[in-house]
């Protein structure tokens, strides 16, 4: 028994020693705690904290496919030169678009720090109209330009920073954003209601009792870009209640020293029906836009409609949670009259199909996109938003 016990004890001692040496040879590091993405619900759905920061980020956008036909609207049908005889054919105007959007938000001692960006990428027809390209050297017949589809490049539509009420960067004019766009139709600018793209320095004020206001210093775009250090200026006030809102904006065009204004009434009739009416008036004593750009003349950064005054009205009727009817009627001092109406249907959450019909009766000016005095067109839109 003594020998047996001695052998067993020796074996156990050897195992213990070898185990100790093995433990010393292999060192397993403790796993560091993982930092998972945290949901941020301060600014609405879809935000999350950027890891290691207190900044909330939301990423989104949409993919859109438009099919346009007819003779009216900036994206309603097209013309192209015929490959065989060089004449003019009506054709579809199609556009595929990918839009990427970002939102950020963070609370600071000076208020909420926010940013918003929107970048668009398009593949579409190059033009809406076939233009005379040359004359056939043999027959002398006119040959019109083709209308090829291709990538049209990226556009930066929004890129602004806002701290508290102060916003700077690329935006759309407060003459349109503060008072609201002209209805939920695709072609809401058949009678235009103001210029859009611009760099801005803006200040928003919210009194907290339904009253809000904005002051915006704007650079303009294209032919409407300011021609000195003096900016375009927009100011607006709004009163919002449960039944709707009353809004007014006024704009100063520094290039021509002209003034334009709009007043709008929004009414929420019930859960299904909402209506709006908006009127605009602008002076044009000094407007001297070149006739090659605007044959009717009298158009600036803000007063883009024909003549001095214009009206827009319409509304939305929500048939059910999936289907809505949207319409807009517009008319201006130059007797341009337009109607746009569509049905929007949410196939599944995030996927909407919209079918729209547009009509324009051209008045005394010919700056519209209509190719006939009485022009009609249509758009079918597929949009996946995320």
Q: Please mark out the parts with pLDDT under 50 across 5 or more consecutive residues, or reply none.
A: 11-23, 290-296
Mean pLDDT across every amino acid position:
88
The helix/strand order is HEEEEEEEEEEHEEEEEEEEEEE
Number of strands: 21
Major β-sheet strand ordering: 2-5-6-9-10-11-12-13-14-15-16-17-18-19-20-21
The number of helical segments is 2
Radius of gyration: 31 Å
Choose one word for the global shape: globular
How many angstroms separate the termini?
A: 80 Å
Q: What portion of residues is helical? A: under 10%
Explain how this protein is built.
The chain has 386 residues and is mostly beta strands. The chain has helices spanning 2-25, 174-177; strands at residues 48-49, 56-70, 78-81, 88-91, 93-108, 111-125, 132-135, 142-144, 149-163, 166-172, 197-206, 211-218, 232-241, 244-253, 258-268, 273-282, 309-318, 323-332, 337-348, 351-361, 374-385. The chain contains two helices and 21 strands. A hairpin with a 2-residue loop joins strand 5 (93-108) and strand 6 (111-125). The chain starts with a helix and ends with a strand. The chain is 7% helix and 52% strand. It has a domain at 171-334. It has a 16-stranded antiparallel β-barrel with strand order 2-5-6-9-10-11-12-13-14-15-16-17-18-19-20-21. Strands 3-4 form a two-stranded antiparallel sheet. Residues 11-23 and 290-296 have low confidence and may be disordered. The chain is globular, with a radius of gyration of 31 Å.
